[in-house]
Structure prediction request, 98 residues.
Amino acid sequence: MMMFAMVSLLVGMVLGQRFSVLILVPGIGLALVVTIVAGIARADAAWPIILTSAAVITSLQIGYLAGIAIRHLLVAGRARRSHANPLNASMPARRPAH
Prediction:
């Protein structure tokens, strides 16, 4: 169960970096299918499959929020650097004359 939750946390972070929130709908659907199939393959009872599915979905959403936060911090850092010295950000570097 913990392995599925950790993997879904990392997948959620990647999805948060690249996609909008609508990607969570197919992501949650795929996570549900994978956890149910894995639970049936291991011959688990219904409650462990349900708990694993809930943990995976929650980890996916928390990872998505963490990915958005990381993306926001990276964009804010780039914007701060470009606003700190606007001449260097907008003009190409000059080569010395020989």
User: Anything to note?
Assistant: The chain has a mean pLDDT of 88. The radius of gyration is 21 Å. The first helix runs from residue 2 to 18.
